[in-house]
Amino acid sequence: MQPIDSIFNRGLFTTQMAYEAGLSKRDLKAALTDGLITKMTRGVYARAGMPYDIYAMIALIYPNGIFAKMSALALYDMTDELPKHIDMAFPNGYSNKNLVSHQIKPFRQQPDRLMLGLTEVTTTSGATVTVYSPTRTLLDIWDDPQIDTAVRLEALKEYMSRFRSSQSDRELMHFKNKLYANSTIDYALEVLV
Fold this sequence. Notes:
By secondary structure, the chain is an alpha+beta fold. It folds into 2 domains: 3-50, no CATH class; 55-192, Beta Polymerase, domain 2 (2-Layer Sandwich), CATH 3.30.460. It is 44% helix and 19% strand. The protein is built from 10 helices and 8 strands. It has helices at residues 3-8, 15-20, 25-33, 54-61, 69-75, 111-114, 134-142, 149-162, 166-179, 185-192; strands at 12-14, 37-41, 44-47, 66-67, 86-91, 104-109, 118-122, 128-132. It has a 3-stranded antiparallel β-sheet with strand order 1-3-2, with helices on both faces. It is elongated and about 60 Å long.
């Protein structure tokens, strides 16, 4: 397999990934001209015909980010609300001037908080991205005044029907104690049981 085939088989890739696979700037330009790839944004390319996948693209650009809140709800199909921006968690001190240009709303956290509830999901294009678990996501949005009550209730109903288990209940209480000691999520769960 040639380097050009291996990188194109990934579907979505960065300029750096192409260079590491042995492609040159000239190879990328030729692939663009021949219609083999398309430029998604600065430094990110996709195999021609691949569906647009904002989550896969953003994960490539910001590998230290974790999809959170409304973006996580969308990835889990726990909301019908179209996100106005991309919610991502980053380590405290992380700074990148391009976050605004990619419509990313960053949440910076201490490492012990940042790493709680991490998991991965597969996006519509088949890419794997890092996201908070449904349990952590529900807790993150529950008492957030910037998230509409109807969105929170819809997420809770989806969580109850698709993700709730005795293990997730234990996880929820663990996360609540570590992250949001004053959250009202446990009262909402009691009402729905």
